[in-house]
Sequence to fold (152 residues):
Amino acid sequence: MKARVHVMLKDGVLDPQGEAVRHALGAMGFDGVDGVRQGKVIELDLADGTSEARIAEMCERLLANTVIESYRIETL
Amino acid sequence: MKARVHVMLKDGVLDPQGEAVRHALGAMGFDGVDGVRQGKVIELDLADGTSEARIAEMCERLLANTVIESYRIETL
Fold:
């Protein structure tokens, strides 16, 4: 089975990488870009039957820093 | 309007970051993790009515390195 984990910085946490992208898009003439947030997506190829709770444990322990990041699990 | 762009390394392109995550998960006792690919997700806050073609242009010119990365646009 496959699962996809999206890890984004929590609202209110400064995102300098996203801010740099927003600024670069503006400088390249792309108008109307009001905000950019950049995060990670991690695609996992897992043994069949791996529970979502197990994937959440992977997120809590390794994939996301839950102090500043939130994560969302999507099983495919 | 909001759009989300997923940028992943193309198949066949070595992904050392994903490989490191796979290895770390195994070392932490998470069995059955056969493969990990890590990519970026970019959430854009755009002026209403921005066309998908315009977003694709942002991807081609800045957000993705299309030599080694593929991208997928999702409008929300």
